[in-house]
Write a sequence for this structure.
């Protein structure tokens, strides 16, 4: 288990994380610190605890919106996958119809060719 020191709202914290996750934890702490700094700029000194809670709620809201967007995109992918299968079925049916039409045209052409060939012979 790795240990990382991070600074959030001017305070240092020693945090444990899985080996190899140190950079990610440091980045998360930096994002939280930046959000607290941003809120402090908007609201002034309203108390560290209140700023921290506001920052956490803002980040939770961002996460909630991202989760909803992922859910919407997954639904859209499923819908489009269904359309893809429907389009493939329609293309296959159209291909069969065209092939049938070509076969029928070929039979007619052969019939006309035989008639013309028979008309030329004495």
């Amino acid at each position: 288990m790795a240990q990382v020191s991070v600074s959030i709202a001017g305070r240092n914290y020693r945090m444990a994380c899985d080996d190899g996750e140190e950079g990610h934890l440091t980045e998360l702490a930096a994002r939280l610190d930046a959000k607290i700094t941003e809120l402090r700029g908007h609201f002034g000194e309203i108390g560290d605890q209140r700023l921290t809670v506001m920052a956490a709620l803002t980040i939770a809201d961002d996460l909630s919106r991202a989760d909803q967007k992922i859910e919407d995109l997954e639904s859209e992918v499923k819908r489009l996958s269904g359309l893809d299968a429907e389009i493939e079925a329609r293309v296959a049916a159209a291909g069969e119809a065209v092939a049938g039409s070509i076969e029928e045209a070929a039979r007619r052409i052969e019939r006309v060719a035989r008639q013309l060939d028979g008309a030329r012979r004495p």
